[in-house]
Amino acid sequence: MVVLFRRMPTAYLPDEDQGIMMVQAMLPANSTLEQTKAVLVQVRDYLLTDEKEAVDSVMMIAGSSFSGRGQNSGMAFVKLRDWGVRQRPDLKVGAVAGRAMGAFSKIRNAMVFAFAPPAVLELGMAKGFDFQLLDRGGMGHAKLMAARNQLLGMAAQEPALTKVRPNGLEDVPEYRVDVDWEKAGALGVPITAIHNTISAAFGSAYVNDFIQGGRVKRVYAQADAPYRMLPSDLERLYVRNNMGKMVPFASFASGHWSSGSPKLERFNGFPSMNIVGESAPGRSSGEAMGAMEGFVRKLPQGVGFDWTGLSFQERQAGAQTAPLYAFSILVIFLCLAALYESWPIPISILLALPLGAIGGMIASTMRGLPNDVYFQLGLLTTLGLTTKNAILIVQFAKTRVEEGMGLIEATMEGAKLRLRPIVMTSLAFGFGVLPLTLASGAGAGAQKAIGTAVLGGVVTSTFLVTLFAPLFYVLIQQVFGRRRLPAAAPASETHSAGGH
User: Fold this and answer.
1) CA distances from 162 to 15, 127, 288, 356, 376 (A)
2) Exposed, middle or buried, 118 (CB in 10 Å: 0-12/13-18/19+)?
3) Of 35, 164, 285, 435, which sits most exposed with the smallest number of CB within 10 A?
4) Neighbouring-strand partners of residue 55
């Protein structure tokens, strides 16, 4: 059981077909909005034509995506048809996304990714892992970008990973304005006036309200388009100083071109780069996360990482697994000890717990399911069923032994008489979870995970516990019973001698 448990791939939640799919398009820096729209049109035409059996509608958004806002970013929300008309495996969201990735890889002027949303929409934007590369050593943006590119290069060669991509905006040319604060102070120009003038001219500024046709409307001020297109237009600006006079902007500021990130990204106070991806078919998210952690160790010193979204929850859930099982077994042991008023008998019942758990592991492994939260819930349920089957035999044997029957004879009789109720209960339980095991449609991933674990545990707990529970009870009673008998014999002999 331990070997099977350690070999099972780990995950947090099973992948679900929620009837929707997402597409993210990333064009080179400085691409125009028209170019982004053209790529999204190709995406829409493919989905509505080549995938018309599975796709119902497509909504496109140009100029914004999960990476951030920019003319070179775009995304699309794809609504799939109802689950009832998508019964074939090739119409599931995973198959549709896989074929779409193959088609989108032929688009030369953009990187386009198709992916299903996470099982919990509030915990991330895509299924798979959500990775944060952190600059813990204060290396600077350039070195963090180099580390990110090195990490992406290693991830591209890893067979356990797929669709690994940076979830952010690439560096773009920037025009940086350098203000000589000493000159500005000498001219009596306040800092707020400088900031407000630039933001109003090249962006916009709220002025006041006016009423038109009985409706209150806002007034925004902004420089006219021909006067805010070039860096040289900064020289046209004038800023009002403390004495009410207009000071030319060029008298205290200059500018130069540079390159940098258009979006300030931080995670837990550190400069960060968000990287998302998925595990390859046949691999689990736990394997993908382990591979990413191994890559970070090869990066320069000062680069760290952290998990967020579903990946953070998966790491937390994995750390709680051992204490959860240990506490469950402890509760079972204490309840049995109170029930039988004995310490050895609960031990014989606890020895049967692996006989049920191994069935859940074998069934989940055969179906390619990982060790996730639903599997752990199914395993806990299986532990309770296994305990119940062992109690049926042990309770009967204990009663017969107290009535004077021999230990082995009482245990054999208990195993025979209790076989029918064990089989009946297990059949009822097994057929009860069979619809979960064979589920399809909405929520099928979670139902299959818990149903498979429970059904496999029911099978092995029925057959193996019936055979081994009597053996464990006899062995425990013989070992601990012999230790108590010598202590009770002298007292009996003394009492008999005194009475005579």
Assistant:
1) 15, 12, 9, 36, 27
2) buried
3) 435
4) 80
Instruction: Choose one of 258, 282, 302: the last residue of a domain.
Output: 258
Residue 100 has a pLDDT of 92
What are the C-alpha distances in Å from 396 to residues 333, 390, 446? 19, 10, 38
Q: What is the pLDDT of residues 99-113, one digit of tens each?
A: 999 899 888 888 899
Q: Is residue 423 part of a domain?
A: yes
Share of residues in the chain with pLDDT > 90 (%): 20
Tell me, what's the pLDDT at 240? 92
Closest listed residue to residue 67, CA positions, set 126, 153, 122, 109? 126
Which pLDDT value is given to residue 60? 93
Domain count, the chain: 3
- C-alpha angle with apex 246: 240 to 251, nearest 5 degrees? 100
Same domain, 240 and 292: no
- 61: β partners: 75
With a CB cutoff of 8 Å and minimum separation 6, the contacts of 86 are 17, 53, 54, 80, 92
In a domain? residue 489: no
Q: Which domain holds residue 218?
A: 172-258
What is the rounded distance in angstroms from the CA atom of residue 117 to the CA atom of residue 23? Answer: 10
**Residue 331: exposed, middle, or buried by beta-carbon count in 10 A (0-12, 13-18, 19+)?**
exposed
pLDDT, tens only, 424-439 = 988 998 899 898 888 8
Task: Please measure the distance between the N-terminal and C-terminal CA atoms of the chain and give it in whole angstroms.
Answer: 58
**Strands of 241-397, DSSP E:** 246-248, 253-260, 266-267, 270-279, 303-307
Tokens standing for 389?
Answer: 């089957």
**pLDDT, tens digit, 9 for 90 and up, residues 219-239:** 999 999 888 888 888 888 999
Local confidence band at 491 (pLDDT 50, 70, 90 cut-offs): very low
Per the model's pLDDT, the better-predicted residue between 37 and 171 turns out to be 37
pTM to 2 decimal places:
0.71
3-class SS at 266? Answer: strand
- Rg of the Cα atoms in the chain: 34
Q: What angle do CA 76, 77, 78 make, to 5 degrees?
A: 110
Cα atoms in the Cβ-side hemisphere of radius 13 Å centred on 348: 29
Q: 62, 26 in Cβ contact below 8 A?
A: no
